[in-house]
Amino acid sequence: MKKNICIAGKNSIVVAGLCYVLEKYHDQFQILALGDKNDDFTDKWQPSYLKYAKEQGVKILELEDLYNIDNLTFISLEYFKLIDPEKFKTDQLFNIHFSLLPAYRGMYTSAHPILNNEVETGCTIHEIDAGIDTGNIIAQTSFEIKNTDSCKEVYENYLKHGRSLVFSTIDSLIERTWKSYPHPTSGGSYYSMKSIDYSNLSVNTDCSSKELINQIRAYSFRDYQLPRVLGEDIYGYKQLNIRSLDDPGKIVENDLNFIQISTQDNDVVLYKDNFDLLMKAVREENLSEIRKLNQSNPFTLDEKDKNGWTPLIISLFNGLNKSTELLLELGADPEKTNPRGTTPLMYAKHYAEHTGDIFGMEAILSQNVDKQAEDIYRKSIYDYLDVSSAHNKKVSSLL
Questions:
Q1: N or C of the chain: less Cβ packing under 10 Å?
Q2: What is the layout of strands, in order, in the sheet containing 232-243?
Q3: What is the pLDDT of residues 155-200, one digit of tens each?
């Protein structure tokens, strides 16, 4: 009888985990999938795990189905609920948590580190016990929180670095060779679901400039919400070298493009969101409008829409060469991927293979991007070359 592996969770990290396990262990194990309660088999801003599992012919189960399975290795990669180990026949239960445990156990680990001025966070793979993120630690990896990172950018880094941690650790979990150690006795913290009320999110402006900016960063996750001030969606900020002369929270100026607020120290400019307008201008190759919108809010240049596409990805996929050239001139990130890890170069390749127009590929390659970069399926651009394309030779020669 084959042993069993269940990969449970949501978003790109669990898709990547299942892809890895199928690639390496499908002959030796029965592979099972357990998804999120909100996964409706439809790709959204993140890929649907259940859709991918179904496409791969993986058996999809409910949590209760797993309790009586013998010889089971259970690996939670962003599964949405707590696991009760007492209900399982196996003790091979593992979880990835998005923080450097024992710090930030619990909820909202992309927001609280920003609010607390942390400069580093990371991912932890640990054994599951009866507590909340308290099981013995198996492996960790850390990364920097830049002082401009939003909550969503921190979360995307969790997915990226967590994926690498899974790839480097999962063999030891399945082959039962892992080693673990208890949590350190210091440095622990815990945040419950009630620690941030997202149903009634408000920005406190009676504070220092740093505290105000950190709130904007911590609440900026376009797929769920943007912070709002004076009824306006805010995306981006700037601390001015102007000492505040008014009371903290007072509106100094409310312009078409920004709101200037006094704080306990320096004035802060909060940029009004113009992302939809920027995407429209990119699609229309309205270069003057792109420049104008970028000047009025430089933060939206690398933002992603509901499909995970940046303005640069939109321009490359559609062969909008004038928009591509200008976006790169303005500083658009030539390596910012979609949630599946598809690179801008991959999008440019797709357009070139269909049309023979290699402008986008040449423009991205001029930025010294990593041509070997892999997506969540562990494939690079070379794995996606279309040898049947009439333009394959031209495309391949660039790579």
A1: N
A2: 228-229, 232-243, 266-272, 258-261, 251-254
A3: 999 999 999 999 999 999 999 999 999 999 999 999 999 999 999 9
